[in-house]
């Protein structure tokens, strides 16, 4: 068991070392995301801010991306079917599927932490929440962790299709997820709601005791565990040729 995690760390560090130049673009993109979303915010004296529905859509679509590092593999998955080629390579060594999966989970968690430390502070500053929110770090953490739960929920789905699909099918699934996010944002707005406003207000009111935060983290963790388990059960049977 411990050797499996140790080998997973070796895989993660190898991939990171090979793609270390992409980390520069990773930093730029996280800052760009914060600028693009934060510029839409319209702070008010009330708790939280009443934000344009476009921000909901952008959060729904882009927050899951903070669970990725930019890499040669992620850029070339459509042209080269790079995720399938990766699995072919590890199968020939051979490296157990559980080790590859754990390496992917390590990548997800470290990318979430690294990108979150870039994105959320920049978003708070650009959206105008800094003066009010920086007095209580718990509020900022509660908001970030609430959306981290959503990130884990969606990334479980991404991992499933990343490991079990061709690059072309993975593209279509990603597109459908984005369209579904747009539909959810529209429906929330249709019923006079706003996901960002709600999570901001809950985080401000309850801080780290926010029931929304804990609910999303539990839901996200369960979703990730379930999809990883289903992926592992099918991965050994997948024809990689």
Automatic annotation (TrEMBL):
Alphabetical UniProt keywords: Membrane, Transmembrane, Transmembrane helix
Keyword Translocase: no
Transmembrane domains' residue ranges: 21-41, 53-70, 105-126, 138-161, 170-191, 211-232
Domain of life of the native organism: Bacteria
Key word Membrane present: yes
Official protein name in the record: ABC transporter permease
Source organism per UniProt: Paenibacillus woosongensis
Biological classification of the source: Bacteria, Bacillati, Bacillota, Bacilli, Bacillales
């Amino acid at each position: 068991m411990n050797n499996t995690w140790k080998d997973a760390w070796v895989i993660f560090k190898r991939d990171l070392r090979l793609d270390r130049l992409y980390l520069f673009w990773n930093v730029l993109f996280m800052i760009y995301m914060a600028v693009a979303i934060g510029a839409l915010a319209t702070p008010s004296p009330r708790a939280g801010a009443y934000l344009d529905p476009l921000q909901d859509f952008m959060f729904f679509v882009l927050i899951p991306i903070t669970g990725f590092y930019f890499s040669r593999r992620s850029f070339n998955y459509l042209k080269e079917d790079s995720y399938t080629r990766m699995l072919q390579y590890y199968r020939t060594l051979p490296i157990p599927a559980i080790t590859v999966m754990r390496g992917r989970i390590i990548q997800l968690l470290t990318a979430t932490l690294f990108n979150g430390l870039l994105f959320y502070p920049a978003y708070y500053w650009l959206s105008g929440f800094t003066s009010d929110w920086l007095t209580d770090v718990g509020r900022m953490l509660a908001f970030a962790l609430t959306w981290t739960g959503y990130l884990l929920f969606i990334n479980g789905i991404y991992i499933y299709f990343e490991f079990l699909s061709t690059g072309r099918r993975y593209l279509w699934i990603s597109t459908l997820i984005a369209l579904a996010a747009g539909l959810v944002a529209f429906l929330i707005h249709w019923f006079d709601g706003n996901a960002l406003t709600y999570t901001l207000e809950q985080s401000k009111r309850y801080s780290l005791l926010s029931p929304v935060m804990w609910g999303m983290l539990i839901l996200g963790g369960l979703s990730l565990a379930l999809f990883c388990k289903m992926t592992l059960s099918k991965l050994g049977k997948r024809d990689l040729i």
